[in-house]
Design brief:
By secondary structure, this protein is an alpha+beta fold. The chain is 15% helix and 44% strand. The longest helix is centred in the N-terminal third of the chain and has 9 residues.
Length: 166
């Protein structure tokens, strides 16, 4: 019985309705990892935030691609604040735009050792084309096409293909 209670304290999962679908946030307190997964009629993506290693990965389908980057801890919600963020979102009646945004440029560089980013990122990105994503600051005029993901109506993750991404 004690192990069941301990497991419940280790992993928390919340389902949040969004327009046209939902997001599921899972928090693993033991490993300091959070994952947010969105499923709608026309879009599926999953982002993994490893607060222990400082890396994050985002899997985007149908592109069958995964983007790995360093977490920007000043812009991202704190690990301990994630459950409250989900609770606030569930109590909200109207969707709102994200209050923060992080923009990345994608570099076509092969990631040789995917396992070095941890088991959660490895299992998320395994078998997909995986790219390095570097955060960019300020106005960018040559980013090319971009994909913007709204995470928990708090943070927009924008991934852009630069001119050299062929």
């Amino acid at each position: 019985m004690n192990s069941i209670r301990q497991h419940q304290q280790t992993e928390i999962s919340k389902k949040i309705s969004i327009s046209g679908g939902y997001q599921i946030m899972t928090i693993n307190r033991k490993w300091l990892v959070a994952s947010i997964e969105q499923k709608t009629n026309h879009e599926y993506w999953k982002t993994i935030w490893n607060y222990d290693t400082g890396f994050m990965a985002t899997k985007v389908l149908p592109e069958r691609a995964c983007y790995i980057s360093i977490m920007n801890r000043t812009e991202m919600p704190s690990f301990d604040g994630l459950p409250q963020l989900a609770a606030d979102l569930r109590n909200q009646r109207h969707p709102r735009p994200p209050s923060k945004e992080i923009t990345f440029t994608l570099i076509r560089r092969a990631i040789r050792d995917l396992e070095s980013y941890g088991p959660d990122i490895f299992s998320t990105c395994r078998g997909l084309s995986t790219y390095v994503a570097y955060e960019v600051q300020g106005p960018q005029f040559n980013l090319g096409s971009c994909l913007k993901l709204d995470v928990l109506q708090y943070l927009a993750l924008t991934y852009c293909h630069n001119d050299n991404f062929v």
